[in-house]
Amino acid sequence: MSDDQRYGLARHAILPGPLALDGGGTLLPVEIAYETYGTLNADRGNAILICHALTGDHHVASTHPITGKPGWWSRMVGPGKPIDPARHFIVCANVIGSCMGSSGPASINALSGAPYAMRFPVITIRDMVRAQAMLLDHLGVSVLEAVVGGSMGGMQALQWAATYPDRVRAALIIASAARHSAQNIAFHEVGRQAIMADPNWAGGNYYGAKPPAAGLAVARMAAHITYLSEAGLTEKFGRRLQGRDAKSFGFDADFQVESYLRHQGISFVDRFDANSYLYITRAMDYLDIAEEHGGLLANAFRGTRTRFCLVSFDTDWLYPTRESRAIVQALNAAGAQGSFVELSSPYGHDAFLLDVPELNRVADGFLRAGVA
């Protein structure tokens, strides 16, 4: 196996389309940046699609070209790991609407010769999945051994099983939900308003000028709080001051937790586009798989032969365990084959990205169980 096959080969596809969108528009052509690991076997039956979260990308197990950091799921993907390029043909695609090479607001509109900006069509999670299906067709993959994702990636995995049941043998859905709560939507709206309140946003027409970095940084700070747990924040920072013995009684970062959040916000703007943040958070808020199927989530999975595994974390208050249980109950009502586990972790929602050995064991066992 070559180094490219083992550690990832970055690619870019321009698919002819058109891609019909839920909002009534079309996307033509469809550009998708993606990475592959491993090789497709003779019967083309060993493909695993990994779906990334809101601010993720296709660099799942390879060095990120902007930050220089390891891939965001290198704990799960790699030689000897649950998703292993020695056994699987692994595909991870940047979602449409994003800013890492797939069609999005920063892409050039062929009709105008300028970036789409806010003229980019509204997208949904199902639109993202349809674009991924087009990519898999392009790669010659008709059936997936599994689709795997956490957070927004889990939403895509669930949508895959609902939209293309005959193409998905197994779905591993981690720390996710079938729709957003009012609280989820509210946090996203705070972030969107922070971006749009930045004077540099300029109605989305900031390409070639100064971007709305301050607004995007605040949006990231607000969202990042939801990814953590109170216990985790307390253990890591408590009320400790930032390298001082006394408060400065000003608006500098007195507390360590303030400095941490500011760093998260500032580093985020170097790799992400503000308009993409608006589009993708809105797509997540629009998701309601039950609504697509007569208001009953079970209807989305009746007659399916897909195996499901749902994983939640006990300190995740963004997508708490009850969201996973609701999906499991719907699968049971539909007669689908599903399993569920709640794992203990101090890391909150971010646990699916961090060092939780039990998650690797669950994922490995579930994926191996489906191999004849």
UniProtKB/TrEMBL annotation:
| Cellular component GO terms held in the UniProt record | cytoplasm
What is this protein's record name? Homoserine O-acetyltransferase
Provide the binding site for substrate: R220, D350
Q: Look up the record and name the pathway of this protein.
A: Amino-acid biosynthesis; L-methionine biosynthesis via de novo pathway; O-acetyl-L-homoserine from L-homoserine: step 1/1
Q: Does the keyword Methyltransferase apply?
A: no
Please describe the quaternary structure of this protein. Answer: Homodimer.
The catalytic activity of this protein is classed by the Enzyme Commission as 2.3.1.31
Where found, per UniProt? Cytoplasm
